[in-house]
Structure to design on (223 residues):
């Protein structure tokens, strides 16, 4: 199975900060990765498809990138509404696997 | 608008069975692969199962943790997808989400609690 190692597990940042969350894949997944945002009590919302493509309606301060087996979600300038949990998902190979999640809090 | 509405969750005892459902609307259901994803209380997301479309012979795929115990199925005539869960374990306690169109659309979830 492909393991997705997500870091950090939690973080606190100030409004306006640049924030980066990373998932490292244990095997090659190409760009077959989705980033999700999940607010408390809500269903996940896709933010980034195919590692780097912004989903419809997602603010342009969000971006996705890849460096080798490391996949990153970056928020260029943190806003209060970005407080949420973030999850990555690889869909290259079954079983599909999620990262363990990152809780993002606002200082 | 796309809607996915799960139902059928509840409290069951270990080793019992439960079938949860997801009613879909707002898109061409028969053309969409459907998935179940779950989230244990306070934990991360876990993919559970996938079912493909009729041209793909309704092929199914399962997480190792549920293989042999859970069965995903669909009824295209009713735009419904189901998850039959047998021999439930306490570790199956979770919110179960139905999702479609490569995870673009999600339901609100239905809570399954397995406890004696």
């Amino acid at each position: 199975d492909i393991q997705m190692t997500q870091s950090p597990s939690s973080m606190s940042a100030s409004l306006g900060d640049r924030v980066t969350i990373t998932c490292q894949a244990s095997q090659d997944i190409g760009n077959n990765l989705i980033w999700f945002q999940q607010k408390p009590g809500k269903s996940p919302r896709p933010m980034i498809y195919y590692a780097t493509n912004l989903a419809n309606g997602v603010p342009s301060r969000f971006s996705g990138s890849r460096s080798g087996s490391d996949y990153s979600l970056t928020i260029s300038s943190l806003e209060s509404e970005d407080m949420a949990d973030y999850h990555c998902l690889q869909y290259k190979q079954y079983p599909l696997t999620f990262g363990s999640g990152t809780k993002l809090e606002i200082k | 608008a796309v809607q996915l509405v799960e139902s059928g969750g509840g409290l069951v005892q270990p080793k019992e069975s439960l079938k949860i459902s997801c009613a879909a609307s707002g898109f061409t259901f028969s053309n969409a692969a459907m998935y179940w994803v779950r989230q244990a209380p306070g934990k991360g997301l876990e993919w559970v199962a996938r079912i493909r479309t009729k041209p793909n012979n309704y092929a199914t795929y399962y997480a190792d943790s549920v293989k042999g115990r859970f069965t995903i199925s669909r009824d295209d005539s009713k735009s419904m997808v189901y998850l039959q869960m047998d021999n439930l374990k306490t570790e199956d306690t979770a919110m179960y989400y139905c999702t479609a169109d490569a995870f673009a659309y999600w339901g609100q979830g239905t809570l399954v609690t397995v406890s004696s």
